[in-house]
Amino acid sequence: MAVTGVFFYLIAIFGTGKLLLNYAPISKPLFAWMTAIGLVTSLNYAWAVASYHYKRRRSFKEELPPVYPAPVPFLGSAVSLAWDVGGFLAQATLASPMSIIIMTLRFLFGMNEAGLAAYRADDSGPLAKPSPGSNPALAPENRIDYLLHQSFNRAFTGPGLAPTTQRFREAFSFRIQGLTGHNECVGIGNQWTHLHDFFEVFGKVAIGSLTQAVYGNLLLELHPDIVDNLWDYDDALPWLARGVPRILMPGPYRTRDALRSKLKNWYVRARQDCSVSDMDPDRDWDRVWGSRLVRYLHQTLHDEHGTHDDDAMSSHDLALLWASNFNAVSAATLAAFHVFRDPSLLARLREELAMHFDPPSSFEHANPKLLLKLPLLSAVYAETLRLYVHVFFMSSAPHQDITVGKWRLPRGANAVVSTGITHTDNTYWNDQEGRAPLSEFWADRFIVRPGDARSGPTKYGKAHAAGAKLEEAFDKPYFSTEGLDGVWIPYGGESILLIQSPHTEDDGR
Q: 91-340 maps to which CATH number?
């Protein structure tokens, strides 16, 4: 309403100024100054736009990228970023430089300066070998970027993910049984239970199950409302990201503080039961401390290195708790929404699942690798990420200038890649000549049908050309991401293939 009021007020001043001028007359000198400032600003903006497009079209290599034009020079893009920085930071895939991680931990998760000091001191990067030019005096145990990168990789990829996946399935099935009142999973025989709140299943049941799988039982026993609190915090994130002072908007800070207080209370109770230092490091899960990842981070950051006190650990755990839940659950919710609103797609998916499982009793013990081999299910997943993962991948070379295309990126500067642009590029993606717009969900976009050059994710049969040898082995439609390197960026920075080879829709028949 305030913006609308200002808009009409300005229109009234410059369009039909008589009425307002009668109440608030503007002196001639002031009006002359306003006119001069408006004229100078307009001319400056016109020059900036012309200069920007001229530099973009030049063929010179390794020069600095042009500055994007802004109407008000000294503000730059601050206004537009302040308006939408919440969506920008809440979904951003954060990589080096460390300054981006520090900014996120500070503004979004409230980490104190004592905890941030460990991140500020580390310029060695996330790889096993320290970055060239980094601080040679930095001790190996102080390479927190590498430490976190390795621990997350072990926990959320490969064999390390299997125990967490199994715990999630067990917890999810148990919660579904609680919603339905059945002793078995929902949908046994003809006994269907109608759930009126779609969000209840995905927004609460799934997040509660995943939280239990990663953080154990005690946290949820002490604070059963923590899942609701996480959703309140997710709503508050855009305001925290804008850096609005607490005195002007205390609500988002109170929400974050309440969550961190509950995490610190969990630390106190957990240590009364057992210390992480006294536990078997090879033990995969504990009802008090949760997964091996959580125990490792507390033992390393808090107990051994002492870089994180309880206050800093609560910020770190809040970041892990939010990130491990909301990306995966949001994608699953959106995928399920599209499946259930399309009866034909739902029927096709159920038929595909029925070929491999005895639904639903076998789901709890299903092999995730088998699920990844189902072409239609994989295609639904991939299309969900294409349509909804619009993030900014940020990176830089902290120790030397690098070349990015024809531009030179100075040392320490940030490069930003928007996946929203690449995911909706109709010069590359297959939109079936407009029948399957890239702004809409199409479950078959990643399905290649041998002999049909119009199928597959890319235009002009690029997927067919890239997978020609593989196609010879299949005479059935199959899932493929061939030809999408640098175009499909679902995980923010790397095009990680869902599966290593195509699989037909009739595998296992």
A: 1.10.630.10
